[in-house]
Amino acid sequence: MALIDLMTKEIIRVPMSAKTKPEVIRELVDVLKDAGKVSEIDPIVDALMERERKGSTGLEMGIAVPHCKTPLVKDMVLAIGIAPDGVDFDSLDGEPSKLFFLLLAPPDQSGPHIEALSEIARLAQSSSFYRALVESRNAEEVVELFAE
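Request: output the structure for the sequence above.
Response:
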């Protein structure tokens, strides 16, 4: 399943208001709830924070991919957030993260989850695509960039 298949403007927050890692995670889970993708917030936030305690999902080059498996979703769901000023996400390179891909998948679905993570890793290789995403002013621009 390609990321574009999961993408609608309702699951994208531009710009984010969060200033800390827990705030980023809560804000993106709120986005999923508002979009009708999840019905509960706190257990999902708790599961994501537990995953972060095992090792930060802050990658390099300003990208973070908070993710976990939870029985609270039937299919994989995605939320995207852009924080132009960056948020300290304990990234591998020590730099603030500006682009967030939050993924939730049911415990029995490994394939799509891994495919989405590798697609995000491929996107991270393109500094021009990353820059265009971070400079997006609204959700529609983000969807258009992925559709191209």
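The chain has a mean pLDDT of 92.
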